[in-house]
Amino acid sequence: MKKIAILGSTGSIGTQTLEVVQANNDIEVTALSCGSRIDLLEQQIRRFRPKLASVWEEKKAAELKTRIRDLNTKVSYGMEGLLEAAQHPEAELLVTAIVGMLGIRPTIAAIRAGKTIALANKETLVTAGHLIMPLAAEMGVPILPVDSEHSAIFQSLNGERQNEIERILLTASGGPFRGKKREELSDIRPEDALKHPNWSMGRKITIDSSTMVNKGLEVIEAKWLFGVEPEQIQVVVHPQSILHSAVEFKDGAVIAQLGTPDMRLPIQYALYYPNRRSRLGEQLDLFKLQNLTFEKPDTETFSGLALAYQALEKGGNLPTVFNAANERAVALFLDGKISYLQITEIIRNAMDNCRHIAAPDVEEILETEREVYDFIDSRW
Ligand code: NDP
Ligand code: MG
pTM, whole model, 2 decimals? Predict the structure, then answer.
């Protein structure tokens, strides 16, 4: 029986991972973790009986421990707990379904411990891809993408590893504000931006999709996963979210993966790679689709995408600045402290004012994150 651990099991990706596990009924879950939602974590523990559960908040961990004293599940907390879950000796695969840069250290620890990574936590690859990809290669550890676009690219590359990629066509839904101009976005409220047309996701990534910063993060993620240059990655707005991304080869062939928008497909693919398991979502019915349409992204209105390309080209700690500034700005926006358009203004400001480090190590990445937070907190 395959054994897996999940960081962020109570989130959107985490719960869907457990749905895949439950539906297939042949995977053992050895470790689960969450930030603070212990009610849901307790239900998951009672259902999946992991050996370890880790909660970020110490007080919540203590409360959980009391609640599940009838079980044999060990409870840990904080970064130590996350690291313990990431390296759980019995797990062969780690699903990184945690949100934000907090995933860097546990992901690195899991790779060092030889775990296959099913990677959803894109912020980790965006900020530390230059450390993670070589380490994974050195350890012989596969990094299997969970993000739907990257899974589509990964699937399109099956049997093609010896062939160079000409171009990656990275699709984007365009989010709820597609077609709008900058001036029309000035009074967007969090509840408007939290409505995604096709995907149901966590709060942070839903806002990131509306600003297209998510696509920016995915461009950087694609660079690290597939070893391509920024100019080889073309973002294509495709509002129906049916064609999940494609690869163009030098003979002009374009190979794509299509499907209904359902994250359980890429999650299941990563859990069982290279095997396919039975469909869990709706079947794709081509006859029901009216149109599949494709547009160029509007990088003037959605300037976060252009900023991501800049961050990628300058490299070093700039993707970290881009990502950290976005994390903070999105949190401020959700708290009602800044306006919608200030999200990308803040990212630009942080990028213009940061201290550039060409090849940051983990400490320097985390230091950059703190500096960016301090910079933003002192001004907004
Ligand atoms: P959610 O916000 O839904 O879930 C985040 C998870 O991380 C929750 O389990 C949360 O726990 C946990 N968490 C948060 N803070 C901490 C902490 N300090 N310590 C431990 N655990 C913590 O996010 P998503 O599932 O939407 O996204 C997860 C990652 O996957 C992100 O990097 C996102 O970009 C990526 N992704 C998501 C997609 C989606 O469809 N949702 C698609 C592609 C990529 P708690 O519930 O207790 O807060
Ligand atoms: Mg995606």
Answer: 0.97
